[in-house]
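Running this now, will post back.
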Amino acid sequence: MVGSSLVRIFQKEQPTSELVFAGRNELDLLNQSAVEDFIRLQKPDIVINAAAKVGGIHANNTYPAEFIHQNLLINTNLIHAAWQNGVGRFLNLGSSCIYPRACSQPIKEEYLLTGPLEKTNEAYALAKIAGLEMCRHYRNQYGVLFHSAMPTNLYGPGDNYVGENSHVLPALIRRFHEAKEAGLDEVSIWGTGKPRRELMHVDDLARGVLFLLGLENPPDWVNLGTGVDHAIQEIAELVKVTTGFDGEILNDTRKPDGMPVKRLDVSQINTLGWKAAISLEQGVLLAYEDFLKGMEAGTTRL
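Update: finished.
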């Protein structure tokens, strides 16, 4: 999802850029020698790390070993190969889940490593923190412009709608759509509906990346988000209206809520000159339209 958005936005807004990319079938980022060979042969000026093993609460709880192992390998292989082969600039994409579970809201960059992580995504967060710290230390020691951006929860074209392994918004879109198609009277959502989430359309992220690459001296890491959050219940109601589902919403309180509140402080990136532009209402509509197109074409990841 993120990689395809970056290609789409760069081709539209930076048409003179020469893009070099490889899908997972062409390059195994878990294979150190393969990554080193690819970077050495392609000789990129800039590397953007948009790769990760990702998932929602269920996937993170069920497969923590895979999450920490694969994400650590992706980060270390790419960052070290970029340095070894003279790449001058490396932009690492992390996640807002790197911050402590109980830190003050909204979450400032300085809150990193000031408290315990949320247990439901601890393995993923630790791997992402390691990537951020690698970039910071390589920048300090070697003088390379390696830096990181911490996006909030993302959604949009190319999202993952695979059952319980998807994130909250794509999971809701699929659930309400299938309930409407089946003529069901109700849809169950995980937890109380009270936790709040900040959601950003992936094309806003891509434009944020483009903005950061235009800065001569960017921060070691910076939050990228909308600065606005919504209760899961509100998000579910919006998806219900957008998909045209007429039934009731039930809360399955036997399922975990996850982190109670997670909203990024985006004052630093706003001060630098960038703001997210796509509202949640507009973004959910765009995401659902893309979901329907993908269903018709057989390309939606189900």
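The mean pLDDT is 94. More later if anyone needs it.
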